Amino acid sequence: MKKYKISESKLNEFWGWFGKKKPQLLQKVIDNDPVLKKIDKEMKDLVDSQLPILLRLKKQHPDLWKIAVEKGLVGPNI
Known about the structure:
- This protein is mostly helical and 78 residues long.
- The protein has helices spanning 8-16, 26-32, 34-60, 62-70.
- The protein has one domain (8-70).
- Helices cover 67% and strands 0% of the residues.
């Protein structure tokens, strides 16, 4: 797997994500970075392929759905 390196000039911006003041919106960072853009597309394709299973889980097992939302495994708006 290819390693993703953060340049020294971007290091302060990277650590800024963990402070109180955020340097820019996360979506803007993803849109400006080709590697993150590719990962974002792959994640969207993965979620889209599993959407029927998630919707069936939400309908048939609302108790399990609630746990999955609480644990952050799925978004509440699916």
